[in-house]
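#structure-requests
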Amino acid sequence: MRLLPLDALEVLETVAGWLAEKENSQWLDFGNRGQIVTPALLRIMAQREAHFMRAYASDRAGTPIGVVGLNSVDRYSGIGTLWAVAGDKSFANRGYVSLASSKLLTLAFRELKLRAVNTWIVEGNPSVRSLQRLNFRFIGKQRQCHLIDGQPRDRLLFDLLASEHRELDEERWRDKALRSRGARAAEDFASDAAPRGRPLNEFSR
């Protein structure tokens, strides 16, 4: 996996497009919930020390498939807030977000010299599994502070100290992903071979 700086116009436009989509933007908060993240705004954000962002690409494609970043970076206090978006949904649920976040955290702790990284997830968002893989610790809840379709939800708060970070082993992750895809292929084959009278969605649950 490669982490790509947001300096090329094509990358900026791709990432800004992801961040403008409701299915992504509704889970994020860049300080102004009503503001659309345009390529121009994203370029400005990428040039400020308060933001540290990288698109990520699979080794084979070389094309961005998602983005990870830190907001509210404070090098004096040594803290920042992690966020991520799986942009190309055809790569979703394969562990790419976890791997890219792990690599960005390594840069944050080694190059930016941060001491701790925090993050939050809206309650009910299944992405909490990624934080567990990354060794984040649950530290509390911010209640009724995030709106999804006008309905208030809680934010679950997490943090990670530099001493607690262990970068995910990409080779082991790749082997696990291949095994997982093999299992899914077997499930798909079973679905295709199912008796005609049985609803196929029973095999996909």
